[in-house]
Structure to design on (106 residues):
């Protein structure tokens, strides 16, 4: 419980962002793994998530015993990346739509 309170106080601070040393090793290992996994993306759809084919290799490499928490971190990171990709595609689509609409009126 003490660790949870430490995390809550770290995350509540807005004046100083946490350093990598502030996070447990499993979080750092999950972020490193996330950055090394391949991306699955399609031209018209965009980013659809990470390719988890090599995940067992990273679990073994980092000696991860709490796989449930590790995968929870990965899926949280992945969901944020997917959302960001969808938002970027929507902005690009809307921009193209506006450009095409203006071109028809001239």
């Amino acid at each position: 419980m003490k660790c949870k309170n430490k995390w809550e106080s770290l995350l509540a601070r807005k004046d100083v962002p946490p350093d990598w040393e502030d996070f447990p090793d499993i979080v750092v290992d999950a972020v490193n793994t996330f950055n090394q996994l391949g991306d699955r993306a399609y031209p018209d759809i965009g980013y659809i998530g990470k390719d988890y084919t090599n995940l067992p290799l990273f679990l073994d490499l980092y000696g991860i015993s709490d796989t449930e928490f590790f995968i929870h971190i990965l899926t949280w990171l992945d969901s944020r990346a997917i959302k960001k990709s969808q938002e970027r595609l929507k902005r690009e689509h809307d921009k193209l739509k506006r450009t095409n609409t203006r071109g028809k009126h001239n």
In short: The two ends are 65 Å apart (CA to CA).
